[in-house]
Amino acid sequence: MRKQVGVMVAACFYYSGLVKLARWWRQRVGQHLIILNYHRATGGDLRRHLLYLRHHYRMLHLDEALEELYIPSQKKEVRDQRPPLVLTFDDGYNDNYLHAFVLACELQAPISIFLIPGYAESSDYFWWQEGKRLVRRAEVTEVTLEGRTYHLNQSGERDILTQAIDARLRYATSVTEREAFLGTMRKALAVPSSITLEEEATLPLTWAEIGKMAESGWVSFGAHTMHHPVLAHLADPAEVRSEVGECRKVLEQQLGHPVRTFAYPIGKLKDIGEEGLRAVQEAGYDWAVTTMNGTNTPQSDPYQLRRVSGDVSRHWLVMAAEVSGLWHFFFGLRKKL
Asked: 50: closest CA among 316, 336, 335?
């Protein structure tokens, strides 16, 4: 019901002309760049999203858009007056290749993907999905974690265990600690090694798939750490620097060209930390994106760029309102009131 109400509100914004007015106003107040942040490419209507974005915005690769925003010598007279926009995908799910890549080529709509080389090499499940997956596929009826026994024949107990696993993974103080805990839980829950069809689309991209996308010219890539730890929770500053810097080196070796952009895992300031911010600059990246909401101007901090949260499962009318800034303004104002 809530989702239906949201679509109705978005439809009112769109068909009343408010979304168009918001786009026009944003253009009037000065140069800016919208960076959209998606993850998955399936579970909704990505084609409809791309058709809308391609029609109303000037879609660019991230590096190209940031050069235009920040480097005066690169600025040329742009005849296309539509607002510039970049569509980014974080993490590099397999459905980015199977679906987003196909649509990008067909519709000639450039996209940028932030990659995690450690997962491209291991083809393992992303850690943030493991709590739910391990509990769902457990072949035991009870398990003990940190002195508490969870009875998996009760849905409430399964939910609590999922949350407990997620918390341990998120707040791990090293990648080694995280992976050791994952191994322990997989064994304790007797999770089978077989992969279901549902899980296949959630696996990471392979280097072969990444290579094909790069060759097309419609997909560009940025860095997202080697193993996707939450940087602010890592105990050793050297591991922070390694996760950030090594990621760039590996990607440049694989892609054969400089990698200039970085996306912080999770992406809020409390998740990045001072060491994370410092490591990105020391590693030689030109720009870094967060998940803090907003658009960017030439005055924006190049290492704390803002993005607009996107989700392929949302109706395209909701997406249109979000990208225009109207959605955040309206609901932000409602919360204040």
From this structure: 316
CATH classification for the domain delimited by 2-123+203-336, as one of 1.10.357.10, 1.10.3720.10, 3.40.50.1220, 3.20.20.370: 3.20.20.370
Contact 268, 300 (CB under 8 A): no
SS3 305: strand
C-alpha 259, offset from chain centre: 17
Q: Answer yes or no: are the C-beta atoms of 88 and 36 closer than 8 Å.
A: yes
Closest CA to 112 of 222, 10, 206: 222
Q: How far apart are CA 167 and CA 135, in angstroms?
A: 14
pLDDT tens string 138-148: 999 999 999 99
Q: What are 250's two structure tokens? A: 């590996």
Instruction: Give me the pLDDT at residue 333, please.
Output: 47
Whether 192 contacts 83, CB under 8 Å: no
Q: Which of 5, 1, 9, 3 is nearest to 326 (CA)?
A: 9
**Please, what is the Cα angle at 265 between 294 and 118, to 5 degrees?**
145
Count how many Cα atoms sit within 13 Å of the Cα of residue 329 in the half-sphere of its side chain.
Answer: 12
| Cα–Cα nearest to 301, from 332, 272, 336, 333 | 272
| Nearest partner of 304 among 261, 335, 241, 253, judged by Cα | 261
β-pair type (305-309, 34-38): parallel
Whether pTM > 0.85 for this model: the answer is yes
What phi and psi, each to the nearest 5 degrees, are found at residue 324? Answer: -70, -20
Specify whether the CB–CB gap between 8 and 312 falls below 8 A: no
Q: Any idea where the domains of the chain sit in the sequence?
A: 2-123+203-336, 127-197
CA distance 136 to 161: 11
Coil vs helix vs strand at 249: helix
Low-confidence residues in the chain, pLDDT < 50: 333, 336-337
Residues in the chain: 337
